[in-house]
């Protein structure tokens, strides 16, 4: 399965020099918000304020006192760590067509991004959502900080199975229920769900002040419509509903148009909300994705 690639030493060597660029400064002025700026002990001077009883005398600005005969305290900016959560869609549609190994592609990308995200010792976790026994379940790993602990993700990635309907909104509800600080949330999905569901989910992540990134994955066969012509009995991977259809040249063209339509809709919504959109179509896209799409996600070499 494709997800195993993310734990191969040769593949990881290609990721070793990559860093996930994170904006760590925070302001709360409208229209100018980025992640993570807090005031505290740090190495970069930020401002001055008048001395008050009880302040740490180590931070007195003696030069200012000598010039102005006034006690001032030097403050510093502390860059805090930014939490990174990588959410993988493990619904039923991610398992088909089986030859596409769409879930494997999503997991390989997610695990590799986790590895890159740990480059600065930021806390990173993976999550997956799927239907289990009639209920949507969001499964979460613990946070890991250092690349030395990266292999702790392997049991989670290897054991993941697809099942049920795509419910991105319900997964985001569960995620936000944990009330974590604002961070980065990367959603990896085929987005084969109603626009209302994924738009509401991504919008609520943005409202919660997370930096949102969407990775759109689809299989080579389904994105190109490369099915052999003929009569098919088709079963919905999520609902189980059956129907017959004839697949030919026109159907393949319609399939490609629909894929591009969905891609354009997700891309436009992300752009309107200040989120990042990238896509990886086909298992062969894994190498291409890491060569050409990482810049859009904020990954730098």
Q: How are the secondary structure elements laid out?
A:
Blueprint: H1 9-15, E1 19-20, E2 37-50, H2 62-68, E3 72-79, E4 84-89, H3 102-117, E5 124-132, E6 135-140, H4 154-159, H5 168-177, E7 184-189, H6 195-207, E8 211-218, H7 220-224, E9 230-235, E10 242-247, H8 249-273, E11 276-281, H9 285-292, E12 299-300
Parallel strand pairs: 4-5, 4-7, 7-8, 8-11
Antiparallel strand pairs: 1-12, 2-3, 5-6, 9-10
Helix pairs in contact: 5-6, 6-8
Low-confidence stretches: 25-43
Strand runs, count: 12
The share of residues in helices is: 25-40%
Q: Assign the CATH topology of the largest domain.
A: Rossmann fold
Structural shape? elongated
Q: How are helices and strands ordered from N to C? A: HEEHEEHEEHHEHEHEEHEHE
Biggest sheet character: 6 strands, mixed
**What CATH architecture label of the largest domain applies?**
3-Layer(aba) Sandwich
**CATH classification, class level of the largest domain:** Alpha Beta
Order of strands across the main sheet: 6-5-4-7-8-11
Number of domains: 2
Radius of gyration: 23 Å
Instruction: Tell me the span between the first and last alpha carbons.
Output: 27 Å
The structure class reads alpha/beta
Oligomerization category of the chains in this entry: single chain
Strand content: 25-35%
Task: Indicate the mean pLDDT.
Answer: 85
**Number of helical runs?**
9
CATH H-level superfamily title of the largest domain: von Willebrand factor, type A domain
